[in-house]
User: Which sequence fits this backbone?
C-alpha cells in the first residue's frame, strides 16, 4: 500500500540515485543506470558481518535523523577503485586504502544529495558522516539501489533510514522550514575583561583559515615521483578530528562535514577567546 512515507522515501531515493549517477560519471564511468533494487535481498550491515560495510550519516537542517548505507566489500572495493582510478576488480583484496576510497565515494554522493534536497526544500540540509557506526541501526524503512555502468555492473547497496529521518523527508517544504531546530549559541566562559580593550578595532581583519587533515614528511624524490592515483598517507586516523588553523595557528578541532556540496568543519573543541588572542598575537 502506498503511503505518504513511502512516496517521500521514493523521492529521497531518486535524489540519491541521481547523485550516484553524477559522481560515477565524474569518475569516468559511462552508461550509468540505477535500476530498482529489492532491499529484502540485502542485509543490514553490522559489526557481526565482516564482509559487509555500514556507512552511517547524521542528518542536519531539514534532514533530521540517521541513515545507513550497507554494501558488501566486493561492491565497496569497486567504488573505491573507480575513485582512485584503479582497474575495477571485485576480487581484489579489500585494504584500508580501499576503505578510505569507498568512504570518500559515499561522502561525495551524500554532498550532492544534501545540495539537491536543500534546493527542493528551500531549507539548509546536511548529511554528516559518522566516523563510527555504534550499535545496531533502528531501521524504520529500507530500499536498495543498483548501480550499472560500463566499468562495473550490479553494484547493490541497501539504504536504511530511522524513524526521525523518515518523518523529516515526509514533511512538506513549509513544515521543514518551521520545524528546524534553532542554533544554540555557546556563551564564552571568559569575561570581556580578559580580552584587549581595543580588540573591536581589528575584528574586520581577514585571516587565512585552513583545515588540516594531517601531515607527513616526504623525501624530495617522493615528491617528484607523485602521479595521478598516488596515495599520500597522513599521520591521522580516519576517526580523528581535523584541525582548524587560522593564520597558521591552531584554534579548533572538529569533524569534517559536507554542507551544500562543500566541505566544512563541525567544531568539537575550541580554545578560549583569551587563548585565541594569544595564539594570533592580538594581545
Assistant:
Amino acid at each position: 500500500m502506498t503511503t505518504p512515507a513511502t512516496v517521500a522515501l521514493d523521492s529521497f531515493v531518486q535524489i540519491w540515485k541521481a547523485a550516484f549517477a553524477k559522481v560515477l560519471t565524474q569518475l569516468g564511468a559511462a552508461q550509468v543506470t540505477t535500476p530498482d533494487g529489492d532491499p529484502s535481498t540485502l542485509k543490514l550491515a553490522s559489526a557481526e558481518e565482516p564482509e559487509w560495510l555500514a556507512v552511517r550519516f547524521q542528518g542536519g537542517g531539514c534532514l533530521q535523523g540517521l541513515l545507513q548505507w550497507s554494501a558488501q566489500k566486493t561492491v565497496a572495493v569497486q567504488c573505491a577503485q573507480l575513485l582512485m582510478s584503479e582497474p575495477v576488480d571485485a576480487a581484489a583484496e579489500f585494504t584500508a586504502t580501499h576503505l578510505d576510497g569507498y568512504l570518500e565515494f559515499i561522502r561525495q554522493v551524500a554532498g550532492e544529495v544534501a545540495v539537491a534536497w536543500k534546493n527542493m526544500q528551500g531549507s539548509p540540509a546536511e548529511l554528516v558522516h559518522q566516523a563510527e557506526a555504534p550499535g545496531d541501526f533502528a531501521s524504520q524503512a529500507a530500499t536498495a539501489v543498483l548501480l550499472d555502468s560500463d566499468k562495473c555492473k550490479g553494484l547493490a547497496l541497501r539504504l536504511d533510514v530511522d524513524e526521525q529521518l523518515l518523518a523529516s523527508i515526509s514533511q512538506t517544504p513549509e513544515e521543514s522550514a518551521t520545524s528546524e531546530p534553532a542554533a544554540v549559541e555557546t556563551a564564552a566562559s571568559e569575561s570581556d575583561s580578559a580580552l584587549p580593550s581595543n580588540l573591536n578595532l581589528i575584528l574586520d581583519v581577514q585571516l587565512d583559515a585552513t583545515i588540516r587533515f594531517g601531515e607527513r614528511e616526504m623525501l624530495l624524490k617522493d615528491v617528484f615521483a607523485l602521479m595521478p592515483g598516488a596515495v599520500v598517507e597522513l599521520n591521522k586516523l580516519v576517526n580523528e578530528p581535523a584541525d582548524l588553523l587560522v593564520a597558521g595557528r591552531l584554534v579548533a578541532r572538529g569533524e569534517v562535514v559536507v554542507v551544500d556540496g562543500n566541505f566544512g568543519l563541525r567544531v568539537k573543541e575550541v580554545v578560549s577567546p583569551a587563548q585565541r588572542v594569544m595564539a594570533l598575537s592580538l594581545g
The longest strand covers residues 249-259.
